[in-house]
Amino acid sequence: xxxIVKSKRKKPTLLxxxxxxxxxxxxxxxxxxxxxxxxxxGRFKQYGSNLPLVKNIHNHNGDEYRCQVxxxxxxxxxxxxxxxxxxxxxxxxxxxxxxTTSPQVTPFTPSYPAAPQTINxxxxxxxxxxxxxxxxxxxxxxxxxxxGTTESPQQPxxxxxxxxxxxIAWYFKxxxxx
Length: 178
Hints:
alpha+beta; N-terminal domain of TfIIb; 2 domains; six-stranded antiparallel β-sheet; 2 helices; 10 strands
């Protein structure tokens, strides 16, 4: 199957039999195509809208995966340009159809564990539970983790001497504020 896409330089590029061809020249209704690899002798002619006739054989293997990805991107761009629906919806539909037709092309999406629902599902371990002086920093309550040392309630002025404050955000990523 053949499919014409635009290259990065806005030139017509033909995807045909797992190879990419660049338009060499066009004379009236005949289009001459050459392989995108400079050292490859792969060429053919296309008369009108008929299927191309292969003239020379390639000296390298074709890249089916790359051609399918290019074809998907080009068809997706065309659908987005000519449709009034939301881009996100068109993209999602395109990915679903691509996954059903050729699953080897769709990128691997890792599955993440479910977000913790209670404090008992959250585990803060190792160095994240200690201060810079190796004192315990996380005190667990039944509803909320409490961040502080055992001396901090007795010494409220201790925070004035702190050079760095570490905060664990809602998504449990450690950030440093100085």
